[in-house]
Amino acid sequence: KLQRENLQMAERALRVIAVAYKDLEYMPSKIDSDNIENNLNFVGLIGMIDPPREGVKEAVRTCRRAGIKTVMITGDHIATAKAIAKELNILGAQDKAITGQELDKIPQNKLEKEIANYSVFARVTPEHKVRIVKAWQSTGAVVAMTGDGVNDVLALKASDCSIAMANGSDATKSVAQLILLDSNFASMPKVVAEGRRTINNIQRSASLFLVKTIYSTILALMFLFMGSAYPFVPIQLSLISTVTIGIPSFILALEPNKERIKGEFLKNVIARALPTGLTVALNIFVISILY
């Protein structure tokens, strides 16, 4: 009956504590930690709720729309974890939950193949957290880990992006790459959006600069072997750079951009700049021949 009541309370997202006391006649003169739980008189179960912070549910929804999978890793009972995960829309109909004890029975190579099926990990140890992070990394995913306790340090160090809470332990903050000053997970979508804006705009600005480098290099080689004078004088190049690179790159750096980052930085920049640079060089070459 007690186990059933415990499970029912846990399924309502309650953290359950059993309360008991020991009669004085059973109290030893010297405390023995191995036997301290013997000869106890059970009093009852206490259910406590720690409701999610305001905005967390919306933050999880925003992350999902942005293509980010949110995974819950907790030391709570699996029933409690599943109830909270369902409330936050972390645990979907096709997602699974697993405990650390069950995780120990799965070989790492098998876990790497099945890790995408799990969204909730309960009753885990610091070693389990590291296994989970490495399993996700093996799939090619970029893993961000958030935490506030000493037991999160190993997983934070193993992750690609470590995020700590400002009210967390000093050890956690010392290994983290990013610290949320408001200690609120709801700030994560803003962090992701700002990171995407910065990287995407740098790629676009870098492509502009590379366009000039490409066509300038090609024109220099072409007119060197043609024996003709270079078609531009320095003052013209300054004007061209200002109008085609300086002003546009300044505007691009400030433009909102929340597109998902894809591919590698250098390949993306070259793929955008090369066709434009070749086109500019070809046009200038044709015009120089005609006139």
- The fraction of residues assigned to DSSP E strands is 5-15%
Helix content: 40-55%
Mean pLDDT: 86
Question: Helical element count?
Answer: 11
Strand order of the largest sheet: 3-5-4
- The total count of strands amounts to 8
Descriptive account of the structure:
By secondary structure, the chain is of the alpha/beta class. The chain has helices at 2-11, 56-65, 78-87, 100-103, 108-114, 126-138, 153-158, 170-175, 188-226, 234-254, 265-290; strands at residues 15-22, 40-48, 72-73, 96-99, 118-122, 144-147, 161-165, 178-180.
Tell me briefly what this model is.
The chain has 291 residues and is of the alpha/beta class. Helices cover 52% and strands 14% of the residues.
Walk me through the topology.
Layout: H1 2-11, E1 15-22, E2 40-48, H2 56-65, E3 72-73, H3 78-87, E4 96-99, H4 100-103, H5 108-114, E5 118-122, H6 126-138, E6 144-147, H7 153-158, E7 161-165, H8 170-175, E8 178-180, H9 188-226, H10 234-254, H11 265-290
Parallel strand pairs: 3-5, 4-5, 6-7, 7-8
Antiparallel strand pairs: 1-2
Helix pairs in contact: 1-3, 5-6, 9-10, 9-11
